[in-house]
Amino acid sequence: MKLAFRIALRFLTSSKGQTVLIALGIAIGISVQIFIGSLIQGLQISLLDATIGNASHITINADEKNAPINDYTSIRATVTSNHSEIKNISPTLTRGAFIKVGDDVEQIVYRGFELIEADKIYKFSDALVEGTQLPEDNEILIGVDIAKDFDIRIGDTVEIITPEGDIYENKVVGTFDLKVSSINKSWVIGSLTTAQMLFGFTSDQVSAIEMQIDVPFDADVLSERMQKESGIDDILFNNWKADNEQLLSGLSGQSTSSYMIQVFVVISVVLGIASVLAITVLQKSRQIGILKAMGINDRLSSQIFLLQGLILGILGGIFGIILGLGLLWSFTKFALNPDGTPVVPIYINLSFIGLSGLIAVVASTVASIIPAIKSKKLSPIEVIKNG
């Protein structure tokens, strides 16, 4: 093996230009694979984060619209104890209402939470534009668009009107921006206790229980299992995947197109290496014939070309990873939004990058099999005789 390696290295260094071109071809193919794969992964993660990053993955609702969930504390405790996959869980009471400031009245969505738990899901603290604390009883947070439309300031008192016509005064202690216009224009956030009082719920009634899990893509399977295990007929376990079929279809299409591109890149690399090394067999046939005449067996001659493929794959893989990371870095510097952030956030997956480098090595080695077989079949007498 040591002798075969030395000969393979000698063959490669004797044709430096050809070796550089092959390694460069592998590097370009792998860099394209890394760039496209990382770009699509970043886009998918960005879309998922915008859709479900600060939202519920699995939601427990009553099976009847607008009906409350009774004894929610018991349900939450049971679900939490049976499923370690749950990362965050929070009860919520959501109802339509109206906000009144002076003579102006606007329809809103009043959402009452156990705010310490809900903050782990929705990140209200991070979204605060004004104010520094989450609301307590009879206090609320409002969206920045509501505050702008009604010229509401921190410390102002507004009236919340329920569908039944009851009027309650709440103090505004902060404004938030959750980066979704429809939410900023409609959501009013208060404590669960305040919401229960406003809408006539008892202390153990809510409209939903929301949760996030460790692996969001397992939400459909886990929610189905929770439904079977609950044994409660009047509640339903809904998951984000059922509500976002178009998004999932788009993500699936992106993944498929990415895989196809990567497969064709690998095929082109394999064909390119195989063709160049096959020509090398012809170019080096005289030297191989002489080596065989000196005692090198067929197996060793085959190893020479396999090792050439391996060396080229390692070189191409290393340079491909460097080039791919360079392309990603360039993309984050030149493809920017007006606010200076990248158009698509780049996600560096070390496992994917390592796999791409490994693919370069494997593909290059596999591509050298045909030239290795050809060299094995060369007859030293015929080669030397024919010059």
Structural class: alpha+beta
Give the SSE order as H and E letters.
Answer: HHEEHEEHHEEHEEHEHEEHEHHHHHHH
* Contiguous runs where pLDDT drops below 50 for at least 5 residues: none
Please tally the β strands and state the result. Answer: 12
Order of strands across the widest beta sheet? 3-4-9-6-8-7
| Strand portion | 15-25%
Shape field? elongated
Report, as a whole number of angstroms, the end-to-end distance.
28 Å
- The DSSP helix count reads 16
Number of domains: 2
Helical fraction: 55-70%
Overall pLDDT confidence: 83
* Largest sheet entry: 6 strands, mixed, barrel
Q: In angstroms, what is the radius of gyration? A: 32 Å
Overview of this protein structure:
This protein has two domains: 2-51 and 247-386, no CATH class; 68-233, no CATH class. It is α+β, with helices and mostly antiparallel strands. Helix 11 packs parallel to helix 14. Helices cover 59% and strands 19% of the residues. The strands form two sheets. The protein has a six-stranded mixed barrel with strand order 3-4-9-6-8-7, surrounded by four helices. A two-stranded antiparallel ribbon has the order 2-10. It starts with a helix and ends with a helix. The protein has 16 helices and twelve strands. The longest helix is centred in the C-terminal third of the chain and has 39 residues, at 245-283. It has helices at 2-14, 16-53, 72-82, 115-122, 124-127, 144-150, 181-184, 192-198, 219-230, 240-243, 245-283, 285-293, 298-334, 350-367, 369-377, 380-386; strands at residues 58-62, 69-70, 86-101, 104-113, 128-130, 139-143, 157-161, 167-176, 187-191, 205-206, 208-213, 235-239. The radius of gyration is 32 Å and the shape is elongated.
